[in-house]
């Protein structure tokens, strides 16, 4: 069977009456399109939405030097030469916890008990891990209340310390406009204290 003959009125035989360049077509589209109106939404509702404006950080993250391990914040010089055979005695003068920092200044020969993420006390420059600590025992062999500890190893300046701005530097652009927000992006926004974000209506595929 032969295919049907195409008549003179068949548009498939006429070609294009007028042609345009790609640039002209894009320019026409730009003239017809309008940006969507932006809206502010809480972070829990922003996953999959398109960011309407770039986001910069007004803060450093972390906002202070912090401990990266549980242990004791110390002046590193206090531990120089310490080892299991020649432990060095340190006096415990307080503690620093997340949300409850130590308020004093630590001097050489002193230590502050510290938890991971807690602010480093003034005067300290390193963290002596809990595994490198020996406790004082009384004559009966009972461990004391840890007012005195013994460094069983030396630490260098900056050891086990996360520095101010190590994760995010104040003023840096974190996310560009037009970005489809992923769950990890919302975590970044939360870390700089942002509880809502400006997005365009609708959802995009993540």
What is the mean predicted local confidence, pLDDT? 86
Total beta strand runs: 13
Radius of gyration: 32 Å
Number of domains in the coordinates? Answer: 2
CATH architecture annotation of the largest domain? Beta Complex
Distance between the termini: 51 Å
| DSSP summary: helix tally | 2
Structural class: mainly beta
Largest sheet properties: 6 strands, mixed
State the name of the first-level CATH class of the largest domain.
Mainly Beta
Low-confidence stretches: 137-144
Query: Outline, from the CA principal axes?
Result: elongated
| Beta fraction | 15-25%
What's the order of the H and E elements?
Answer: HEEEEEEEEEEEEHE
- Tell me the strand order in the biggest sheet: 8-5-7-6-10-9
* CATH homology group of the largest domain: Molybdopterin biosynthesis moea protein, domain 3
CATH fold naming of the largest domain = Molybdopterin biosynthesis moeA protein, domain 3
- Helicity, in percent? under 10%
Summarize the structure in words.
The protein is mainly β. It is 10% helix and 24% strand. It folds into 2 domains: 35-61 and 167-206, Molybdopterin biosynthesis moea protein, domain 2, CATH 3.90.105.10; 66-162, Molybdopterin biosynthesis moeA protein, domain 3 (Beta Complex), CATH 2.170.190.11. The chain has helices at residues 22-32, 183-191; strands at 39-42, 50-51, 55-56, 66-67, 71-74, 88-96, 110-114, 126-129, 133-135, 148-151, 161-162, 173-175, 196-200. The strands form 4 sheets. It has a 6-stranded mixed β-sheet, with no helix packed on it. The chain is elongated. The chain starts with 21 loop residues before the first helix and ends in a 6-residue tail after the last strand.
